[in-house]
Amino acid sequence: MQTLKVERHDGVVTVVMSRPEKKNAGSPAMWRELAETFTEIERRPGDRVMVLTGAGGDFCSGADLDGISDDALDYMKRASHAAEALSALTIPTIAKVDGVAVGAGWNLALGCDLVVATDRARFSQIFIRRALSLDFGGSWLLPRLVGLQKAKELAFFGEILSAAEASELGLVTRIVPAEELDSTVESMARRLVHAPAQALSLTKQLLDAAADGGSIEAALQRENHAQANNMLGADAQEARAAFSEKREAVFYRPDSQATTAHV
User: What is the pTM of this model?
Assistant: First the structure.
């Protein structure tokens, strides 16, 4: 690939956006490769957790608009395909953020389940400063995460936020010193890898579905089907056996493949 580095180790797949000379700004090639990579990850049963990060001390500075002219709509469709493929992932996803995460770059991070940032990370819905409107799912993500009024404030002014300010809004899961970023994310990913994969995936899908609204009756119906799948699965059998035998349950072995299910 031209713009990404993909590494796999014991159930964790790490996707590194690698255009450091551009602070990992999204080019047409990068959006295409992200979409293809996310789609491949969803199809690989050995990938249990995804970590998304950037090379060179930055996460992503948004879209690289150099050379964009009459093909602007095609460019935007490529970016949208990447956003859709990220949203479709049913495994846990962690954005590992250092440096800048602005514009589409911030929305790329917000599209992940968890955001771990260094104390020097900076965030912005910077679009308005470039005479642009929201993209990469920002108009969908922000109101759900912070409410409509705060979403409008972030979008209207495009202010640069520190990691602490973003965390106060609930947009950063955890803040760590830069030297602890790798070890913190590795520890979180390890815990998720060793969790029961099907139950974790179904939990993610249930929460995502409920965030879109609907009734408690619909949520309960989804929960019933998900829980019935869990109860009959191998992980639940292992959990019951471990409880009975007074030992730690083992849900992951390097040669094992996750069972997939959908709500």
Answer: 0.95
Q: To 5 degrees, how large is the angle CA 228–CA 230–CA 233?
A: 110
Tokens encoding 26: 């999204």
Please calculate the CA angle 62-89-154 and round it to the nearest 5 degrees: 35
Q: Which residues of 189-219 are buried (b: 16+ CB within 10 A; e: fewer)?
A: beebbbbbbbbbbbbbbbeebeeeeeeeeeb
Q: 3-state class of 27 per DSSP?
A: coil
Strand partners for 4: 17
Query: Tokens in use for 32?
Result: 């295409």
H/E stretch holding 17 reads: strand 12-17
150-203 pLDDT, tens per residue? 999 999 999 999 999 999 999 999 999 999 999 999 999 999 999 999 999 999
Q: How far apart are the first and last CA of the chain?
A: 33
- Cα–Cα separations (whole angstroms), residue 179 to 116, 184, 185: 13, 10, 12
* Ramachandran class of 13: left when φ > 0, alpha when ψ lies in -120 to 50, beta otherwise: beta
Residue closest to 26 by CA, chosen among 125, 134, 105? 105
- What are the distances in angstroms from CA 43 to CA 14, 211, 229? 15, 25, 20
Q: How would DSSP label each residue in 76-145?
A: HHHHHHHHHHHHT--S-EEEEE-SEEETHHHHHHHTSSEEEEETT-EEE-GGGGGT----TTHHHHHHHH
Phi, psi of 101 (to 5 degrees): -140, 95
The residue to which tokens 């293809």 are assigned: 36
Helices (H), 127-232: 138-146, 148-157, 163-168, 181-193, 197-211, 216-231
